[in-house]
Design goal:
The complex is a heterodimer of chains A (302) and B (92). By secondary structure, chain A is an alpha+beta fold. Helices cover 32% and strands 13% of the residues of chain A. Among the domains of chain A are: 76 residues, no CATH class; 31 residues; 96 residues, 2-Layer Sandwich (Fusion Protein Consisting Of Minor Coat Protein, Glycine Rich Linker, Tola, And A His Tag, Chain: A, Domain 2). In chain A, the strands form four sheets. Chain A has a three-stranded antiparallel sheet, with no helix packed on it. In chain A, helix 1 runs antiparallel to helix 2. The longest helix of chain A has 29 residues. In chain B, 55% of the residues lie in helices and 13% in strands. Chain B contains five helices and three strands, in the order αβααβαβα. Chain B has a three-stranded antiparallel sheet with strand order 1-3-2. In chain B, helix 1 packs across helix 5 and helix 2 crosses helix 3. The longest helix of chain B is centred in the C-terminal third of the chain and has 15 residues. Classes of the chains: A alpha+beta (302), B alpha+beta (92). Chains A and B meet through helix 2, helix 3 and strand 1 of A and helix 2, helix 3 and strand 2 of B.
Chain lengths: 302, 92
């Protein structure tokens, strides 16, 4: 029986249904594709509505996937099998390529697990390894010794200018008058007299620093720096008013060698506004600028 | 053996000598094409079914020939055993 129905399937079959059946059949093993296409085109003709035919074609697509998977494991009769002599049974094989869907899924899951494991190693485990060894300390720079106020040197000469009292009062209105006279009399100048010495005045100045409620360095320790084991001291120049509030944006005057740590130090310095201890002069808080060292040390992490 | 396979077998057991196309099996047992054809091929490869093309002239019939399935003697015996095993333990 070799006749084929040449008009490529039954009449009144939409292009979508015909296309779907054609491609479904060709997804099946090669030895079965022509048989299945002819069989499905014949069977779809018995359907009445177009929607039913389309559903049949979609089902054929699913069937081709199932048949393709099973054909790799079980023998499938060839397209020409017949009743005679029990039919011809051939083994069909399906080329799965390098990766089947199952293998790709397996590799994907394994990859996700590997990525998760790596993430845990590089973040969580390091944090656990650096358990706190001591309480956190704020390492600010030592107090700057009070600066000595420059003392004015005594003048070598003392000039005294004596203005004699005018004989007559100057009228409030600037009206020229011949009656009013004024004279400036130069008093004696004694260049050889010893100069008057102004006693030097020493102001006791104490630089400010971290005050009450100063933020914890650990809260501003950058996480990447923790993971990478970065430590160091960032020196920040802060300008603080008498109430311990920042009057200017802090700046780095000496870096730690790590840009991340320096940024963390700047954030800490900004967040600490209002918690600085103001510098004092003679015991009185004054506005001032001073360097503040912020130490990031892993052993200080809790 | 799945319930759908049993329903296909039951359809063929109603008249073991009858040859049925996939479309007719679908009409009788209501199994969708995506499930039906893998079952037919599976049973054929197991030797329970045989299939052949319908002996018509497509040009004169005005339709394509269909693929017809029927139970083999082995398939008939095995399918009967399967259903008999279900009936054991069922009170008549």
């Amino acid at each position: 029986m070799s006749q084929r129905y040449e008009p490529s399937g039954p009449p009144n079959l939409s292009r979508a249904t015909r296309w779907l059946i054609h491609h479904s059949a060709h997804r099946a093993p090669e030895s079965l594709s022509s048989r299945l296409e002819e069989e499905w085109l014949a069977d779809v003709a018995s359907r009445s509505s177009e929607l039913s035919k389309l559903r049949f074609a979609v089902g054929c697509y699913w069937a081709s996937l199932v048949i393709g998977n099973e054909s790799a494991r079980i023998p499938v009769p060839a397209a020409s099998s017949a009743l005679s002599a029990g039919g011809i049974v051939t083994l069909t094989e399906r080329n799965f390529g390098y990766l089947s869907l199952r293998s790709a899924t397996l590799f994907l899951i394994a990859g996700l697990h590997a990525a998760l494991f790596y993430g845990m190693i590089t973040t969580l485990s390091h944090t656990r390894a650096t358990t706190p060894q001591s309480n956190l300390e704020n390492h600010a720079l030592k107090e700057v010794p009070p600066e000595r106020v420059p003392v004015l040197q005594p003048l070598s000469r003392d000039w005294t200018i004596a203005v004699p009292k005018p004989d007559a009062e100057i009228p409030p209105l600037l009206i020229p008058s011949d009656n009013v006279t004024s004279a400036i009399e130069e008093k004696s100048i004694e260049p050889d007299s010893p100069p008057a010495v102004i006693p030097p005045r020493v102001i006791a100045r104490i630089a400010g620093g971290p005050g009450a409620g100063f933020p914890d360095t650990a809260d501003f320790y950058p996480s990447p720096s923790i993971r990478m084991g970065e430590q160091g001291i960032s020196t920040v120049q802060v300008c603080v008013d008498s109430h311990g509030r920042l009057t200017a944006d802090p700046t780095i005057v000496r870096g730690s060698g790590s840009a991340r740590l320096d940024q963390g130090a700047l954030k800490l310095a900004r967040a600490a506004s209002g918690h600085y201890r103001a510098s004092t002069e003679d015991g009185q808080p004054v506005d001032s600028c001073y360097p503040l060292g912020i130490r990031f040390q892993l052993s200080n992490l809790r | 053996m799945s319930l759908q396979t049993l329903r296909v077998l039951e359809t063929f057991l109603e008249n073991p000598a009858e040859q049925l196309a996939g479309a007719e099996v679908h009409q009788r047992c209501g199994i969708a094409s995506g499930t039906l054809y893998p079952i037919l091929l599976r049973l054929e490869s197991a030797g329970w079914f045989v299939s052949q093309w319908e002996s018509i002239d497509p040009a004169s019939a005005g339709r394509p020939r269909r693929r017809l399935y029927r139970l083999t003697s082995t398939g008939l015996r095995r399918a009967s055993e399967v259903f008999a095993s279900f009936n054991r333990g069922v009170l008549a």
